[in-house]
Amino acid sequence: MQEILFRVAPFRSVPLVGLRRLADSGVTRSFLAGDVLIQQGTVTRSMYVVLSGSVRIERTHPDMTDAVVMALCGPGETAGEQGLLDDGPRLYSVVAAEAAMVLELDGRNVIDLMQQYPHQCVELLRLCSSRPRNIEALSPGIPGPVGP
Length: 148
Description:
Jelly Rolls, alpha+beta, 4-stranded antiparallel beta sheet
């Protein structure tokens, strides 16, 4: 599994020993199309690496009839990294767009990796801070986050 993490952009420069530890702590999960990995408005501390299939990052609001799809993530991409930086509610949901297999990484283990290899984890920090900003830019007409 560490070989898969090595191919994921935010983890590419982390030494294999660190990736092995992180991969060993992860849990492989399978989802059917439409299953929710992360519900907008909830507080979670996990991030996901897509192994197969795809997941949608989407945002809802009571004034809208349908969710707005912000991104589609496929194999080798991540979702849910926002929860690593704060304990606030998620700004978006992550939903399986099709049958998907993901590696769920506990935020505490990812933070431990970042502390052990701070210089190598700069890309992960950039991703954690840019995704919410990108979502805000893509959805200027959608009012702020609303809980479940």
